Amino acid sequence: DAGITQSPRHKVTETGTPVTLRCHQTENHRYMYWYRQDPGHGLRLIHYSYGVKDTDKGEVSDGYSVSRSKTEDFLLTLESATSSQTSVYFCAISAGTNTEAFFGQGTRLTVV
Amino acid sequence: QKEVEQNSGPLSVPEGAIASLNCTYSDRGSQSFFWYRQYSGKSPELIMFIYSNGDKEDGRFTAQLNKASQYVSLLIRDSQPSDSATYLCAAPAGGTSYGKLTFGQGTILTVHP
Predict the structure, then answer these.
(1) In percent, how much of chain A has pLDDT > 90?
(2) CA distance B100 to B113
(3) Is the minimum CB–CB distance between A99 and chain B shorter than 8 Å?
């Protein structure tokens, strides 16, 4: 299994609070991604990183920010959590273009 | 039009039958395609990838790619109850990809004994 660890695995938070999800990899892959998965929508890309301090928006980036200060860590922050951000969040890594992505175990986030 | 679309399903087949999962894509420049399997409550795992037109076989799984028709499929022969899962088709996102993948919405497969 690819060495990807997400933390926390489960979290319940209140509306309006900031939340940070962490993704840690031991594969030294250049590319890292945050996806959210919701019924009827499949996996949607939130943000991605193509190197340390190099990040860009995906298709559903509003309300989220990311940071990557080290190759192995990619953080996703919900600046002010809303109920619409209740979802399962997956981190993924990839070695390059046109190659497969490997996924972490996922984080189930509930915003109440 | 979504970049990657899957037949919506759900799909139910008897044990031992062939399950056929289909996917169409809109970006003619896409070079590679991936099939992921996702069990309920788990993360997606790669089961097949295909780059060239034609068929690629791996055990009971066969991926088929037709670039002219922008169509990719996954056949599962001798389906087993353990194959029951959601199957996701993925293709590289357009433009400067940075390894990004666009996923279809998934097809839920149930194999009943």
Answers:
(1) 88
(2) 38
(3) yes
Cα separation, A101 vs B46, in Å, equals: 8
Q: Which of A42, A45, A103 sits opposite B106 (nearest CB)?
A: A42
- Measured CA to CA in angstroms, residue A67 lies from A5, A51, A97 at distances of 16, 10, 21
Q: Which amino acid is at B85?
A: A
Q: Are the beta carbons of A42 and B104 separated by less than 8 Å?
A: yes
Q: Could A42 and B93 be called an inter-chain contact, meaning their C-beta atoms sit closer than 8 Å?
A: no
| CA A48 to each of CA A11, A27, B109: distance values in angstroms, whole numbers, following the listed order | 22, 17, 30
Inter-chain contacts counted by CB atoms under 8 A, chains A and B: 64
Residues of B in contact with A50 (CB under 8 A): 98-99
Peptide bond into B113 cis (omega under 30): no
pLDDT digits (tens, 9 = 90+) for A10-23: 999 999 999 999 99
